[in-house]
Amino acid sequence: MDYVEASGRNPFAEWLAQRVPLDAKTAINNRLLQMAGSRRWPEKWVSDYEGYTGIFEARVPWNRVQYRPLFKYSITIRWQIILLNGATEKGGKLVPRSAMDTASNRRQAIVLEPTRVERHRFD
């Protein structure tokens, strides 16, 4: 599932379409599909993010770039994730630097309005 703004805009889908090369997008979507088929993920795939309770980063390396889809778990459907934001990691820091704050704000919006999600499109 993807977070959706009140206007209907899907920022994660926009990040994938506008900021991620096609081959990296394929790698990210493949990792998300692998995660969907498994209940336990290796630490090299996913980690929680210190200082941001309830937000996790998927780790997808591709062509020397570290892609970091940021997500939360759904509170209504067990094992379902909701993609909140996209970022890359350089030198141990997320780019853009506001990525975690943005993800945190979106997480809170979903807590208040659980319908602010739509199915992720693997295209």
Topology (elements, then pairings):
Blueprint: E1 2-3, H1 11-19, H2 22-36, E2 46-48, E3 56-58, E4 60-62, E5 65-73, E6 81-90, E7 93-95, H3 99-112, E8 117-118
Structure commentary:
The longest helix is centred in the first third of the chain and has 15 residues, at 22-36. Helix content is 31%, strand content 28%. Strands 2, 3, 4, 5, 6 and 7 form a 6-stranded antiparallel β-sheet that branches. Strands 1-8 form a two-stranded antiparallel ribbon. The protein has 123 residues and is α+β, with helices and mostly antiparallel strands. A hairpin with a 7-residue loop joins strand 2 and strand 3. The chain contains 3 helices and 8 strands; from the N terminus they run E-H-H-E-E-E-E-E-E-H-E. The protein has one domain (2-118). The mean pLDDT is 90.
Low-confidence stretches: none
How many H/I helices? 3
Gyration radius (Cα, Å) is: 13 Å
Q: Structurally, how many domains make up the residues?
A: 1
Largest beta-sheet characterization: 6 strands, antiparallel
- Termini separation: 14 Å
Structural class: alpha+beta
Overall geometric form: globular
Percentage of residues in DSSP E strands: 25-35%
Average of per-residue pLDDT values: 90
The number of distinct β-strands equals 8
**Topology as a string of helices (H) and strands (E):** EHHEEEEEEHE
